[in-house]
Structures are given as structure tokens and as C-alpha cells.
Amino acid sequence: MENIEIIATGSYLPQNEIDNKIIAKELRTTEEFIYKRTGIEKRYYVKNETIDRLAIKSIENLLKKNTTIDINNIDLIIVATTSTNLLMPGISYKVQEHFKIKKCMCMDILAGCAGFINAVDIARNYIAIGKIKTALVIGVDILSEYLDKSDISTSIILSDGAGAILIKKTENVKQYESIINSQGEKGNLLVSKSNENIKMNGTEIYKYAVTETVKNINQLLKSSNVDIDEIKYIVPHQSNIKIMNSIANRLNIDVKKMYINIKYVGNTFCASIPIAIDEMFEKNLLQKGDKIIFIGYGGGLNTGSILLEV
Known about the structure:
Distance between the termini: 17 Å
Oligomer: single chain
Shape: globular
């Protein structure tokens, strides 16, 4: 199996910043209640921006930081989302068109909030079988357009944004392992239909998130023959601060090992992990040889983790 490495990252948040004061007024609650329940102080909503534009902006920011990248070397563009109504052509094709990438494969996937994990794993597997050498993997969601403003369980957490990573085949020995589990029989716990508001059973989703993620990570560590002490960071889907704290507690790790940025970003579903990864590289938190775990969970229901050596 071929090894991969992350060679570039980028992200984008819309300019329309929505703090807890605005949400609290709309829902007739308090800023303190929102923060205590979610760990969020602000989130971002689009204003006259399309979902493909968010994805493109995240890639433009990636390219600004990595000026030596030849975008025509990209063999695959894969986009994970839960909120597009751009069914054909998909977002990935719009990205290809915008950047005038002459020859590559494009696909969009719908795999719930953990879709970015699936997308990375698909890209890596194409690299592993020798079909491609370089893949652009994007997570993007516009959730503000699917909010029931009277539903406090979703209105206080959801946000819009996009994140992208560029991965390529490497000759260096780098560890990679993934485990993805789906539970379609529980899919009605978190539902998003075209032109309808997102509906979530918050209590059941919480129970699922704090149990299945821990099982998944423990499976991943066992199959990788890696001890959790060897992991530099766990990068979770930024769902809710209580869920992330509970995951850390059940794994018996310091919560500082979990990279959490939900406070200033909100829950962006498929975009949350790549946005966090971009921040981590920006802050120089990751060095060559570090082992990290991405863990995604949510709609589907779908739980997926990847152990990746930077």
C-alpha cells in the first residue's frame, strides 16, 4: 500500500460573523446558556455566497500559502458535504472549472458529518492502488440555510465554512490506518432534506457520539498497534464542547490532546475537521513524524477515524 502525506491546507469562513448575542436575542435565551451548552461564542453565515464559492475560496487560500503548487498536477478532486443543492454538476466539477484543471477525476460524496473522513480515505485508496498521485479533498457546508430558527438544539451550534487539504503519494514510510462504520438503521436521528430544515434528536445523538467514537478510536489504535500516548493530537468533528470533553474523558486523555476550535468557528459539519487541520498547520502545532487521529461522526449515522502520520 502506498503512503500519503499532507502537502498543503486551506480554509475559508464567510464574513458574516454571528455572535451569541444575536442568537440569544432571536431565541429569547442568554449568551451564557448558549456558551455553556455548546462551547461556542460565534459562528459564520453566508451572505450572497454559494457553496461552490466557499469551496473555491478555501482552495484559493491554500494556494496563496503554497505558491509552488502546480494545480494541474491534481488527479482527483473530492468534496464532502451535507448541504448542497447543486446536484449536477457537483461542487468538485465547479472547482475544476474555476481553476481550469485540465485533466482530473471529480466526485462529491454524501456521508453525513463524517463525510470528510470518507473523502480522505477514498482519495488515499485511489493513491494506494496507483490510480492517482495527488488529491484535493474538500469539506464544505452551508448550514445556515437549513436552520429552524425556533429549534434551539440546532440554531445555536451550526455554522458555514469550507476546508481543504492536498495529499499526495510519498516514498517515505508513513503510517496510515482507517476505520469507518455506518449505522443506517439509526439515520433518522439526524436528517437533512433538500429545502427543509435540519432535524436532530439531540439526546440520542449525544449518546451515540460519546460511545461510538470511543469504540472507533480504540479499534483504530488496536489495528494500528499504536498506543494513545503516541498520538500528538486527536482532531474531532467540532460538534459540541460537551461531546468532545466526554470523548476525552472516556479515552482517559487530557482534553488538551483534543484539538478544539469550536469556540470561534461553530459546527460546520463536513468542513470542521479540515478547518481545524488548517489552523493546526498555521500555528505550527504539527511536525514531520507526528501521529494524529481524525474522528468524524454524525448523520448517516456514520463514524469514521483515520490515523495519519504527518
